[in-house]
Specification:
Blueprint: E1 14-20, E2 23-30, E3 40-43, H1 56-62, E4 68-72, H2 88-106, E5 111-116, H3 119-129, E6 134-140, H4 162-169, H5 172-182, H6 185-196, H7 203-212, H8 220-226, H9 235-241, E7 246-251, H10 258-265, E8 272-276, H11 282-285, H12 287-304
Parallel strand pairs: 3-4, 3-5, 5-6, 6-7, 7-8
Antiparallel strand pairs: 1-2, 2-4
Length: 305
């Protein structure tokens, strides 16, 4: 029997935890810079092997400048990986609880928040439900803007396929076997190359994704993802309804398009769209340009405020 690879901390700083009704939530926190600045909170994407490592370049750049935190969403990283059906509601509630914890950690009334891919949907809902907590919203290659989404759907509606979820979870033995193939190094590299739009994937990301995907319970959240239960049915409408200034970044080598970006921010006069010669996680491939663009956006908030 192969030994489970140890999971070490994905990021520097403190790794903190707190308890919720959905289990333990783990997050990284650094406050080495100007403590009185608005905290930056970072949310990784959703896939078979996700973790806070996916925001590492952003976290490392800002941790000596301002308070910064990065979460392991439920089912990933060091957070609880319960055998349950994961939904946008569960993820949004985790973000609510985490942002309240950041407010307690720092004494800040608001945060600047940034999420990647599918997790942009959860951040958007959190910001809609508690707008007073968010000074600005960063969306990196947001998922769920395709036309077949139900913009008028119930807030708890998902794109879940019950039959597929049953197939993936009915037999523990079959479930483990299927996930072992999905979580192999070749499979992880293949999907990351699709995400990056090429073969220039950071080796550390591949290694950490592999180790994270081989922890006990690692298959539970990915099965909800693959069967559609982690996709909000009303994501497109969520993005359009955001009341905060929005910074939308995407890579031209991703599935995201200029038209989708314009559709999201057309009602947001204080918002900015930037694109990069990169994949869906442009901060790994074009960090300097990414940070420069985000800093200009934040500076505009300070000027207007």
């Amino acid at each position: 029997m192969s030994k489970t690879p140890a999971l070490t901390a994905a990021l520097k700083g403190e790794r903190r935890t707190f308890e919720t009704e959905h289990g333990t939530i783990s997050y990284y926190f650094a406050n080495e810079g100007e403590a009185d600045r608005t905290p930056l909170v970072l949310i990784h994407s959703i896939n078979a092997a996700a973790s806070a490592y996916e925001v590492k370049p952003i976290y490392d750049r800002y941790r000596r400048q301002r308070p910064v935190a990065a979460i392991d969403l439920p089912g990933y990283g060091f957070s609880s990986r319960r055998a349950t059906r994961y939904t946008p509601r569960l993820m949004t509630d985790a973000i609510h609880a985490w942002v309240e914890r950041i407010a307690a950690d720092t004494g800040a009334a608001q945060v600047d928040a940034m999420a990647c891919s599918v997790a942009c949907q959860y951040l958007a809902r959190a910001a809609e439900e508690r707008p007073e907590r968010y000074r600005s919203i960063g969306l990196v290659s947001p998922a769920g803007v395709d036309g077949d989404l139900q913009s008028g759907a119930n807030a708890d509606a998902t794109r879940g396929k019950p039959w597929l979820y049953r197939v993936l979870t009915a037999s523990p033995a079959v479930s483990k076997t299927l996930f072992a193939g999905l979580a192999s190094r070749p499979s992880i590299r293949y999907f990351l190359e699709k995400t990056f739009g090429g073969k220039d994937v950071e080796p550390g990301l591949v290694d950490y994704a592999y180790r994270s995907a081989h922890q006990p319970g690692a298959r539970h959240a990915p099965w909800s993802f693959l069967s559609g239960y982690l996709f909000s049915a009303d994501a497109a409408g969520l993005y359009r309804r955001l009341s905060q200034p929005v910074w939308l970044a995407y890579g031209k080598r991703s599935d995201f398009s200029d038209a989708a970006a314009r559709d999201i921010v057309q009602q947001h006069t204080a918002s900015t769209v930037v694109s990069f010669d990169a994949g869906a996680l442009p901060h790994f491939q074009q960090l300097e340009a990414f940070v420069a663009g985000y800093d200009r956006f934040l500076a505009s908030l300070e000027t207007s405020g």
